[in-house]
Design a protein that fits this description.
binds adenosine-5'-triphosphate, 356 residues, binds magnesium ion, binds fe (iii) ion, metal-binding, EC 2.3.1.234
């Protein structure tokens, strides 16, 4: 069985083919970041228009490079939500048109479930029959806790099994990745600057700037990052400095506050549920400070930390959509209703159950 995955929820056009036995055959991505960098953030209308230009050539080159033809594909998985409506519509329309032309079913994919499955992308012969979740190196049992940290989401999720999710906590305002990007712009870095901010922070002196860790003294597992964003912005705007050391010190102070907050909430979620294993995914899971804080914390609890096997699988990509598609195709959740329907808002908790 082979699935073509299409990702167009935000500003990356992603196309991939995932094979049941061979694993990932190809993963192609076109990032619009340069297009949006002039504006310091994603411009939805421009994003949708650019997807329409990129998507077909990406699919054609993915098939050409793998030597596959339409008859080698058993289903088309596309991101149906959540995301920007114009961007989602492009992926949905292309998936429906190809499914009609090739006479194969489509599979609606939840973008955050796809992120959640990204740690499995190195696997061949993917199987959940044994009830385990694995990134090749480590194998963990269900249930586990997932921290989904991206440009639009900050969520702590209890994963009872694939397809059965309970949201334990989430951000009541800005997502952590979004705040990394906004602070990065103020520090003079190009959008999306989360990764560059983290590099800048490496030269910073810890403790020169100490920012409040949001909501750690309140009970519960929700997050709030807008206060931290305001506190850091105020310092940057009042100093108006071009001194690279000062900028690095601020970046370091901000990163520490954000990462320590995420770590404290993960610890709380694990303790509260008496679960030992944690999976992180989404763009911010590429952050090395986050990985090191969490793996230290889990070591002391004799738990395991899993994250995507390559940095390119942390941020948006077609591979994770194709992989999620294969799982849902195998469990009978593909369909032939080709009405173009997208869900800009869609809760992980309301997904159709996966029977494997
Ligand atoms: P969502 O998945 O919620 O719809 P999105 O798809 O835009 O949002 P992703 O592509 O998963 O988000 O992740 C992008 C985000 O990850 C950006 O905000 C980016 O700055 C952030 N990011 C990437 N690398 C790092 C890093 N090393 N440190 C911190 N943030 C990072
Ligand atoms: Mg993006
Ligand atoms: Fe994403």
């Amino acid at each position: 069985m082979r699935v073509l995955g299409i990702e167009t929820s935000c500003d990356e056009t992603g196309v991939a083919v995932y094979d049941q036995n061979e694993g990932l055959l190809i993963n192609k991505i076109y990032s619009q970041s340069l297009l949006h960098s002039h504006y310091g953030g994603v411009v939805p209308e421009l994003a949708a228009r650019d997807h329409t230009l990129r998507i077909i050539p990406l699919i054609v080159s993915a098939l050409r490079e793998t030597g596959l033809t339409s008859s080698d594909i058993n289903g088309i998985a596309y991101t149906a939500g959540p995301g920007l409506i114009g961007s989602l519509l492009v992926g949905s329309a292309v998936a429906c048109a190809l499914a009609y032309a090739w006479n194969i079913p489509i599979i609606d994919i939840h973008h955050m479930e796809a992120h959640l499955l990204a740690p499995m992308l190195n696997q061949k012969n993917i199987s959940f029959d044994s009830g385990f979740y694995s990134n090749c190196t480590d194998v963990i049992k269900f249930p586990f806790i997932a921290l989904l940290v991206s440009g639009g989401h900050t969520q702590l999720v209890m994963v009872k099994k694939i397809g059965e999710y309970k949201i334990l906590g989430e951000s009541i305002d800005d997502a952590v990745g979004e705040v990394f990007d906004k602070i990065a712009v103020l520090l003079g870095l190009q959008y999306p600057g989360g990764a560059a901010l983290s590099v800048m922070a490496r030269n910073g002196i810890k403790g020169r700037y100490i920012f409040p860790k949001p909501m750690i003294h309140k009970p519960g597992l929700n997050f709030s990052f807008s206060g931290l964003k305001t506190a850091v912005s105020r310092v940057i705007l009042s100093l108006k400095t071009n001194d690279n050391q000062v900028k690095a010190d601020i970046a370091c102070g901000f990163e520490c506050a954000a990462i320590e907050t995420l770590t404290i909430k993960c610890y709380r979620a694990l303790k509260q549920t008496q679960i030992k294993n944690l999976v992180i995914s989404g763009g911010v899971s590429a952050n090395l400070v986050l990985r090191s804080y969490l793996s230290n914390m889990l070591e002391s609890m004799q738990g395991t930390l899993l994250y995507p096997p390559k940095l390119e699988f942390c941020t948006d990509n077609g591979a994770m959509v194709a992989c999620a598609g294969l799982i849902r195709l195998k469990s009978g959740l593909a369909h032939t209703n080709l009405s173009i329907l997208v869900k800009p808002r869609w809760s992980l908790e309301s997904l159709p159950k996966v029977e494997i």
